[in-house]
From TrEMBL:
It comes from Cyprinus carpio. It holds the Pfam family SSF. Keywords: Cell membrane, Glycoprotein, Ion transport, Membrane, Sodium, Sodium transport, Transmembrane, Transmembrane helix, Transport. One of its GO terms (molecular function) is symporter activity. It catalyses: iodide(out) + 2 Na(+)(out) = iodide(in) + 2 Na(+)(in). PROSITE patterns: NA_SOLUT_SYMP_1 (PS00456), NA_SOLUT_SYMP_3 (PS50283). This is Solute carrier family 5 member 6a. GO terms for cellular component: plasma membrane. Signal peptide: none annotated. It is a multi-pass membrane protein. One of its GO terms (biological process) is inorganic ion transmembrane transport.
C-alpha cells in the first residue's frame, strides 16, 4: 500500500484557514451593521422572517452536519464497511413528517421557540423542563462538535488542542452574537459550500491516486467493505437496515422536527411554503453528504487497506483523517 506520508500545513494552508475564519466573522459583522442592525427580537432570532429556500435548506443541512459527521462517516466506512449508508433510507420519511406536521403548527402560531408551544399546549413547568433539557443536550453536543475539528487541526498543524477549541468557539460566538440568525444562516451557506468542495476534492483526487473508481471498488470488495442489505432483526448488531433505516427516522424527527436550532431556521422563512420546501430540499443534500462520506471511506481503504495509521501509531485517533494536495497535477498524498 505504500508508506504513509505525514504532512503538515504549509503557509498557503494557514492563509486559507485564517481566511475562512475571517470570512465567517466578517459575515457576522456585515449583518451587525446592515438592515435593522439586529435591534428587534424578530430580526435577531428569526432573521425578520425574510429568508428564501436555498439559504434556509443549506443552513438546516449544516447545523447537524458537523465535523463529527464529516470525519466520522469516512472512518466508519473505512473500518466497518458501507452498511452505514443505509441510514439514508430514513431521510425521506424523517423529513416528510416534520414538513407536513410540525412546520405548519409552529409557523402558524408565530412562535420563536418550540418551548413556547410546550407552554401553550401544556404548562409553564413543562416549558421550563423542555428548555433545561435542551440546554444540557446542546452543551454536550457543542463540546463534541468543537472538539472534533480541533482534533483534526491539532493533527495537521500541531496547534494546541484546547487553543483550537477556544479559537473556533470565539469566532462562532462572535458572528452569532453580532449578526443574529441572518449571519448564522449565511455563514452556514458559506461553510456548506466549502464542505462540499473539500469532500469532492478528496474523492476525485483520491480516486485517481488509488487507480480509478474500478480499483477502489475492487479493493473494497476484496476487503469486505461493501455491505449488502442486512435484515437481521437483532438490535445488538452494530448496523442493520432496521437500526439505520427505521431507527434513523426517529433520529431525524428529533433533529428536524422539534430541535430548537432547526425550528428557528424554519421560522425564519418568508412563508410557510418556503419553510416546507426548505425541509424537502435537505433530503437530496443529506443523501449527497452521506454518499460522499462513504466514498471517502472507500478511497481511504483503497489507499491504505488494513494498514491503519492508528495501528501504526501515526495518529492518536481514528478520526484524524485529512487530505493534502501539494501539487494537484504532480503529487497528491493522503495523510493522517
Amino acid at each position: 500500500m505504500g508508506d504513509i506520508v505525514l504532512m503538515h500545513f504549509s503557509t498557503v494552508d494557514y492563509v486559507i484557514f485564517v481566511l475562512l475564519l475571517v470570512a465567517s466573522a466578517g459575515i457576522g459583522l456585515y449583518y451587525a451593521f446592515s438592515g435593522g442592525r439586529q435591534r428587534t427580537t424578530q430580526e435577531f432570532l428569526l432573521a425578520d422572517r425574510s429568508m428564501s429556500c436555498l439559504p434556509v435548506s443549506l443552513s438546516l443541512l449544516a447545523t447537524f452536519q458537523s465535523a463529527v459527521a464529516i470525519l466520522g462517516a469516512p472512518s466508519e466506512i473505512y473500518t466497518h464497511g458501507t452498511q452505514y449508508w443505509f441510514l439514508g433510507c430514513s431521510y425521506f420519511l424523517g423529513l416528510l413528517i416534520p414538513a407536513h406536521i410540525f412546520i405548519p403548527v409552529f409557523y402558524r402560531l408565530h412562535l420563536s421557540s418550540t418551548y413556547q408551544y410546550l407552554e401553550l399546549r401544556f404548562s409553564k413547568s413543562v416549558r421550563i423542563c423542555g428548555t433545561v433539557t435542551f440546554i444540557f443536550q446542546m452543551v454536550i453536543y457543542m463540546g463534541v462538535v468543537l472538539y472534533a475539528p480541533a482534533l483534526a487541526l491539532n493533527a495537521v498543524t500541531g496547534f494546541d488542542l484546547w487553543g483550537a477549541v477556544l479559537a473556533m468557539g470565539l469566532v462562532c460566538t462572535l458572528y452569532t452574537a453580532l449578526g443574529g440568525l441572518k449571519a448564522v444562516i449565511w455563514t452556514d451557506v458559506f461553510q456548506t459550500i466549502v464542505m462540499f468542495a473539500g469532500q469532492l476534492a478528496v474523492i476525485i483526487v483520491g480516486t485517481h491516486q488509488a487507480g480509478g473508481i474500478a480499483e477502489v471498488w475492487k479493493k473494497a470488495q476484496n476487503g469486505s467493505r461493501i455491505s449488502g442489505l442486512d435484515l437481521n432483526p437483532d438490535p445488538l448488531e452494530r448496523h442493520t437496515f432496521w437500526t439505520l433505516g427505521v431507527g434513523g427516522v426517529f433520529l431525524m424527527l428529533a433533529l428536524y422536527g422539534v430541535n430548537q436550532a432547526q425550528v428557528q431556521r424554519y421560522l425564519s422563512s418568508r412563508t410557510e411554503k418556503v419553510a416546507i420546501m426548505s425541509c424537502y430540499a435537505v433530503f437530496p443534500c443529506q443523501q449527497i453528504v452521506l454518499t460522499m462520506g462513504c466514498l471517502m471511506g472507500l478511497v481511504m481503504y483503497a489507499r491504505y487497506g488494513e494498514e491503519s495509521p492508528l495501528d501504526k501509531g501515526y495518529v492518536k485517533s481514528n478520526d484524524q483523517v485529512r487530505y493534502k494536495k501539494n501539487d494537484f497535477f504532480d503529487r497528491n498524498e493522503f495523510f493522517y
